[in-house]
Amino acid sequence: MSRTRSVAGSGQNIHRRSVLAATGAVALAGGVGYALRPSDSQAATAQESTAAVAASSRQAPAAPLAPYTKGTTVASVAAPRGGSGYRRLGDGPGWQRVVRSDLAMPKPGRAGRRTALAAFVQLTDLHIIDAQHPLRLEYLRSADIHAWRPHEALTVQGAIALVERINALRGAPVTGAPLHFAMTTGDNTDNNAKSELDWFLKIMSGGRITPNTGDPRRYEGVQNSGLKQYWQPDAAVRDSDKQAGFPHLDGFLKAAIREVRSPGLNLPWYSTVGNHDSLPMGCYGSHGDPYLTELAVGGKKLMNVSAAEAQQLQAQIKKAGDPGGVRYHDFLKSHARSMRSVTPDERRAPFTPAEYVEAHLDPAHRGLGPAGHGYSSANLDAGTQYYAFRISDDVIGISLDTTDSGGHYEGSIGTAQLKWLDKTLRDNKDSYAVIFSHHTSKTMTNLRSDPARPGERRHDGQEVLALLGGHPRVLAWVNGHIHKNVITPHALASGGSFWEISTASHVDFPQLARIVELTDNKDGTISLFTTLVESSAPHRTDFSDLSQTGLAALYRELSLNAPGASTTLGGDPADRNTELVLKKV
């Protein structure tokens, strides 16, 4: 028998009939709900339906699926061959599951007692890149080798392969339960460009994508510039990356901008916003600057500056010395004569927060739903990008907006959102809760005023932790941003305890997503199982294979070899495949 519970959207309460876990998740976004039926092609407003039916996830099988590990990092993980130089990838041993008792002791026999509460997939930091965009900061590589990565032209192919992997999963690896939904936890795009947003939405919901802007016939960017500080895959030039062992690949750039197709996820998906989605370059609150907007869509691109100039610009970004992009504006203007000519393209324009929400609401990007992927018309009316939704009969999800349109890549939230979060949890005190955001608790340190709400106080991660600790049925805070697998236990003075699950990106090696399963052990404890997955691309690459699949495999191997890339982003074993135990409240 279903029960009626209240889940607050942005600014309003909505009462919904719950849906059992096997049928999927119901969006209750922004104060306006949608009645989603598996066969509907259009969304109905709440007034048109008295009970919401969840967007269809995978059909539950007649009999429960058995636990399995195929296609996950428990079975196998891409592993480097060789210890130096350019390293090839191959099949490596899987990562074992680690039981963590930091917050509660596991009890014997729980595997035979437990029941599934929910299961979902987290994708984070896809960083879909328009690699030819005129405002990209590739030239910072003259001061920092990691500022540009040789695989950046292949983010679309790599993300499609991740969608294919998720689609191939039969269910949750530990319980065998159906997966209810996928959640992207921000930095879905890289440069706040409309081209990137369009590609991201088609990757997630299905469609054909030509990952190319500017000249439709050829690539125009740093990788055919002849500049030796960038990998020139098609050219004979002995660039710095080839000197480190990177291959010469005839036809690479032509293949990289060729049309590809995404099947779209075969389960509902939700979206959370990150700083790269909100801010040009992920750090500048510069939407009101007409000069920078004109450069974004115009016919000039800066590709090379001195190391001293690059170092100075990078220091301003890291220290938040120019959050509005005023000095960046002057910097580009001073280099106008050294810019190279490229083909103008209006699709490269930056998008506003309202346009981000509108794009998610576009029926062309609905896929398997829900309509808006968590966002609603109420978000547009209120100018917000946070919402709540019901995951299952016993669990709600809450997606936060931790970005600050005032600038800088670190995060925080305003007072209105903090109060909404508290009220949403209080209104649903009989439900377990999973919190989603882009930033981690430790990277919510940007207390700069939001220009849209100049009188509103901003709150850091410690304040959010304290609030969540006052709600004992919060189970997890799931996020990204740091591009590294880190799982942190939180036992708060306010009495609550939960796990913070931060997942590595899909742009830096080892390029992972994470499955999270919530289970009731029927012994006074709850277990959260985390299982990492790679894309469907083969571990072994073939330099002669420039097909969509071959490029996805190359995307992973190039990311392994990117000069300056961190070797610790996979995290420790206790941050990867885990069982995280909590006391049941």
Structure, described:
This protein has 585 residues and is of the alpha/beta class. Helix content is 20%, strand content 21%. It contains 13 helices and 26 strands. It has helices spanning 155-168, 194-205, 240-243, 252-256, 275-278, 290-297, 307-318, 326-334, 353-361, 377-382, 415-427, 461-469, 548-561; strands spanning 4-8, 13-17, 26-28, 34-35, 44-45, 76-81, 88-93, 98-100, 115-123, 181-185, 207-209, 260-262, 269-272, 300-301, 340-341, 387-392, 395-399, 413-414, 432-436, 458-459, 474-479, 486-491, 497-502, 513-520, 525-533, 578-583. The strands form eight sheets. It has a seven-stranded mixed sheet, covered by helices on one side. A seven-stranded mixed sheet has the order 8-26-25-24-9-10-13. Strands 1-2 form a two-stranded antiparallel sheet. The radius of gyration is 23 Å and the shape is globular. Mean pLDDT is 90; it is low at 1-27, 29-57 and 59-64.
Shape: globular
The low-pLDDT segments are 1-27, 29-57, 59-64
**Residues in helices, as a percent range:** 10-25%
Strand content: 15-25%
* Major sheet attributes: 7 strands, mixed
Helix count from the secondary structure assignment: 13
Total number of beta strands: 26
Mean pLDDT: 90
Task: Compute the CA-based radius of gyration.
Answer: 23 Å
Strand order of the largest sheet: 3-16-17-19-21-23-22
Class from secondary-structure proportions: alpha/beta
Distance between the termini: 22 Å
